[in-house]
Fold this sequence. Notes:
The chain has 333 residues and is α/β, with parallel strands linked by helices.
Amino acid sequence: MSESGAVTPGPATPAGADRPRYAYLGPAGTFTEAALRQVVSPQDAQYLPQTDVAAAIGAVRSGEADYAVVAIESTVEGGVTATLDSLAGGSPLVLLREVLVPVQFTLAAAPGVTLAEVRRISAHPHAWVQCRRWLAHHLPRVVHVPATSNTAPAALLAGRAAQAAADLGFDAALVPPTAVDTYGLVPLAVDVADNATAVTRFVVVGHPGEVPPPTGADKTTLVVHLPDNEAGALLAMLEQFAVRGVNLSRIESRPIGDALGRYSFSIDAEGHITDERVGEAIMGLHRRCPHVRFLGSYPRADAVAPTVHVGTADADFVTAREWLRAVRGGRAT
Ligand SMILES: O=C(O)C(=O)C[C@]1(C(=O)O)C=C[C@@H](O)C=C1
């Protein structure tokens, strides 16, 4: 990001309006860009860096971009609320793919700055949380200067010597390891994240259309509102999945925003909407809940197939339906 707040361009891309346009959290070198590179190379797409997640998703809604790549969940922080909230409301969008990126951080500064001189660190709030223990131990009095992304402060420091960097309002930044070279910074401490195995999950967001075909190892994301003032409404909602053998890999509540005590549930269920058990569970939600938003069925990044319990395979639902038809037609008991 420039000092005026404008986002600096991502990696140089050949011109060409025919290439799909991907909005993502910039500037160049963010973990989000690493996720985008797993999806499509800069040669085959237009990379459109944005200042935040809402802007990236908004670019798809406005037609400025065809897709957005955004963080949705981290092993340390859980759900990325900016993403969950942007997808829960507004015009419908769907998730088309997920990508996992290992996350590590380096504390870096302009050339000439030493660790002992660091008083203020610029960092994305998620990065700050992911390095909290290291910071408390090594720099207990340091002040957090929030940044819009993991590379926004690196872009501000780029090309500055210690003296020239002094008026930026921070002395060092928590950045992805690759950003140190990209922006000509000096590492003050490496591997400063508290969790060495931290991973962030990113999703490709696009317009609703054809659902990606089932792979046998898929995930379905939903937003569900519960009936008001109904004892056991949450349990009843969960039972729609449980009785059909559908495992949930994530469920979290988010305020709907119109009144205190009103929450929606953001859910990742194992399986594809074309799986009988998943389809039946979602129909159950539709019957019982005032609002259900389908946010897509897409392949799991880890390609792990769900455990299918006795009586919940597609064939079991088909057989049961045929049996019911026969009973109703007086042909079976
Ligand atoms: O993509 C980046 O580098 C970001 O700054 C965003 C983000 C996030 O939104 O969670 C991505 C990965 C890390 O978990 C920390 C921050």
